[in-house]
Design goal:
Distance between the termini: 61 Å
Shape: globular
Order of helices and strands: HHHHHHHHHHHHHHHHHHHHHHHHHHHHH
Structural class: mainly alpha
Number of strands: 0
Radius of gyration: 29 Å
Helix content: over 70%
Largest sheet: none
Number of helices: 29
Strand content: under 5%
């Protein structure tokens, strides 16, 4: 029995017993789930390696030569990674359509191999239509990718008309092997992916609680690192929540169930982020701002210190450890009465039960633990079904009743928002197709001067730097990373080629390892991916008896040329400057922020319900797009330090705004069902200034000459003073809403100065 340890203050003993009780296998599983949400990277690597290995096995049984083994391996890799659809039926259709596209592409590559001018012109046209095909969604992207890569394959292996039958056979085997691995050997359904993403969310939530506990205990020399771990954990939790959002529609059969999971994920994310802020405040001499959790390098608020190790702080540490264990508790594990008592005690803090005597800041942390425990309870019910309620305390029973009422009120809504589609050369796919066609033409001409036999490496690099990029700055950073990875990959390729010699199957084993590492690291580091690609090519050149150090050095030169051609094309052909791109995305973020804030305030004021959860996730997605677009501005090698700091500050302020807007939306969603939340019409008055200021910022970013101005004035709380003397001011929940509105008001006004917008003096 764990009851004596739980009811006493020996939190470390409780945590030690529970930690020891969790198997090494369970801890390893949680670690993998947290590091690779949904096991998406692992699955991509295994599928690709499996398809290549199966292709090589079949072709070796058919006794084909090394050249066709290489061609089959490359075709299997393309057939596997090109497919992007989430539904298995759609994947099968795209794979079936990809085979004739691949056969036609390799045929044209062989036919045009002796016709230099015609071949080059066709290659440029193929590149244009391959990029233009992205406008038709995942299938258009996949077919364009297959067409381009297989044409490149024909150049790499030196395809000829007489050798086409053998190449056809290798490609057919590759596509069939890819299908067998995808649908039989390494099957994956949207529901399975969603289930693994849910487990990843739990694991990352537990890691964030651990980081928050470390922040509480960190000494003066450790606090900066502990704070950075909390920032990183908060960002990783948000990333996983967004990944779940993107899979809900395909991974669930019922819209109401999808919205229930969406709601519980949002609750847990907001509660965990709020708990981090309360902990930061508890160990500081002054109230911390949410910006501290979002701005990289921001110091701990003035007066940061280690809390006194009294009874309250010992209980706080114990309860944080207990919260983490509630998150990680196995679904079908034996809980007994011990964890029920822990859960009951933590949920009791929501109703001010048994709050230890401590400072107001520390008591706020206990309340935050209670709210986080409620979110964890709701998350477990949504993901695992009804839980045993035989040992519930009155506080836990009330929490369950609230959750049941919310579940019953959830009604799936439809998003009727239609984005205005750009046409002509303004359409991103058309512009990118023109740019990459021009850049590839330059790469062909320049590549021919470097090597008449390996010029296509420059074209490949030019093509790749345009993938998933939308501005000149993004292309510049991607080209730099590819060149850096290629340089180090050449060194590795030389070493591997020397070790392998002419041992064919040893070489293929090394290629498979490099391919797996390439796909596993691709979402983490483009430089690492380029490194493994180049290392694998060094081994493939050895197999084709074309290896030499000069060939690999030529690859570096061709890569540098291709990156340069891509940058030149992006800078001078229908350019999209980084400033323009970030400004467009910034306006989008502000518009989404205005939508969430307006909808939440209106609903909290008594207005009709709207789909706030989807709006909040749209805000998160817009913010993620902006964060990615500002990478060229915040890259460590950028010489514009002031501009880098400004970009980081603006993004951090927007993340702070998004947190408070999400919190307002989550509270507004509770309005129809929560017994302690009632609409307050006075909130509409408090939200008007925020709405005006968000709109003014968006207008200023869109046009710096716009005649707009930030409004300043008294605090948000003062705007809700009762109109009639003696009227009650506001309740506890309204007080929390006001705090979020106040912080949102301050953060929105704080955006004015870094964005170059004049700020009038505050009026009293």
């Amino acid at each position: 029995m764990l009851m004596p340890e739980i009811m006493t203050g020996h939190g470390s003993e409780y945590g030690g017993v529970k930690a020891a009780g969790r198997s090494v296998r369970a801890r390893l599983r949680d670690g993998i789930a947290a590091s690779d949400p949904g096991l998406l990277r692992l699955t991509a690597g295994l599928r690709t390696v499996g398809a290549i290995a199966l292709t090589l096995a079949v072709l070796s049984f058919l006794d084909v030569d090394v050249t066709h083994l290489v061609a089959g391996a490359m075709a299997a890799m393309v057939a596997t990674f090109a497919i992007r659809e989430k539904q298995r039926g759609q994947q099968a259709v795209t794979l079936a359509l990809g085979l004739p596209v691949a056969l036609a592409s390799v045929s044209l590559g062989a036919l045009l191999s002796s016709r230099v001018v015609a071949g080059d012109l066709f290659f440029v046209a193929l590149i244009f239509f391959a990029v233009y095909g992205r406008r038709f969604g995942d299938r258009g992207t996949a077919l364009g990718l297959i067409g381009f890569q297989v044409y490149f394959l024909s150049l790499f292996v030196g395809a000829t008309v007489s050798g086409l039958p053998e190449l056809y056979g290798a490609i057919v085997v590759a596509f069939l092997s890819s299908a067998l691995v995808r649908f039989v050997l390494v099957p994956e359904t949207p529901g399975q992916i969603l289930e693994r993403l849910r487990e990843a969310f739990r694991a990352r939530l537990a890691q964030l609680v651990s980081a928050q506990l470390d922040l509480l205990d960190a000494g003066p020399d450790e606090v900066e690192k502990a704070l950075e771990d909390v920032r990183s954990g908060t960002a990783r939790l948000n990333e996983t929540a967004m990944m779940i959002q993107g899979r809900l529609e395909d991974g669930t059969s019922d819209e109401a169930a999808a919205r229930l999971v969406q709601r519980r994920i949002a609750d847990a994310e907001i509660a965990a982020e709020r708990l981090g802020l309360l902990l930061l405040t508890a160990r500081s001499a002054e109230r911390a701002t949410t910006l501290t959790l979002h701005l990289p390098g921001a110091p701990v608020p003035a007066g940061g210190h280690l809390p006194v190790r009294d009874e309250a702080s010992a209980t706080l540490r114990r309860d944080l450890d207990a919260l983490r264990m509630l998150v990680l508790r196995p679904v079908n594990g034996e809980s007994g009465t011990a964890l029920s008592h822990v859960r009951n005690r933590l949920l009791g803090y929501r109703d001010e039960e048994n709050l230890p005597p401590a400072s107001p800041a520390v008591q706020d942390v206990f309340r935050g633990i209670g709210e986080a425990s409620r979110a964890v309870l709701g998350l477990r019910i949504a993901l695992d079904g009804p839980q045993d309620d035989s040992d519930d305390s009155p506080a836990t029973a009330r929490s369950r009743e609230e959750l049941d009422a919310e579940d019953a009120a959830i009604d799936a809504g439809e998003d009727d928002t239609d984005d205005e589609e750009q046409t002509g050369l303004r359409r991103p796919t058309t512009r990118a197709a023109v740019q990459v066609a021009v850049g590839s033409s330059l790469a062909i001409v320049g590549g021919e001067f470097l090597s008449s036999h390996r010029w296509y490496w420059a074209v490949l690099t030019c093509w790749i730097v345009f993938l998933n990029t939308a501005s000149t700055g993004e292309i510049l950073v991607k080209g730099y990373r590819r060149l850096l990875g290629t340089v180090f990959g050449v060194v590795a390729g030389i070493v591997l080629a020397a070790l392998v010699g002419q041992h064919t199957w040893t070489a293929f084993a090394l290629v498979l390892l490099c391919v797996f590492a390439m796909f596993y690291t691709a979402p983490l580091s483009y430089t690492l991916m380029s490194f493994f690609v180049t290392a694998a090519l060094g081994v493939l050149y050895t197999l084709l008896h074309t290896y030499s150090a000069s060939v690999l050095l030529l690859r570096v030169a061709e890569t540098a040329l291709g990156a340069a051609c891509g940058i030149v094309a992006a800078a001078f052909v229908l350019p999209v400057r980084t400033d323009r791109r970030t400004n467009e995305l910034l306006v989008t973020v502000l518009d989404r922020l205005a939508d969430v804030t307006e909808g939440a305030v209106d609903q909290l004021s008594g207005g009709p319900p709207v789909d706030l959860l989807d709006q909040a996730r749209d805000l998160d997605q817009a913010l993620a797009d902006l964060r990615a677009a500002t990478q060229p501005l915040t890259h460590p090698v950028t010489p514009l330090r002031a501009r880098r700091d400004t970009a980081r500050y603006v993004v951090a302020l927007l993340e702070t705004c998004a947190y408070h807007a999400r919190s307002l939306a989550a509270t507004a969603e509770l309005l129809p069902t929560h017994p302690s939340i009632a609409a307050d019409p006075r909130l509409r008055r408090a939200g008007r200034r925020i709405q005006h200021n968000i709109g003014a910022l968006a207008a200023h970013v869109a046009d710096e000459r716009a005649a707009v101005e930030i409004e300043t004035g008294p605090s948000i709380a003062s705007l809700l003073e009762p109109d009639i003397p003696g009227t009650p001011r506001y309740g506890r929940v309204t007080d929390r809403v006001l705090r979020h509105l106040q912080r949102l008001d301050e953060s929105v006004a704080g955006l004015a100065r870094p964005l170059g917008m004049p700020v009038p003096a505050r009026r009293r």
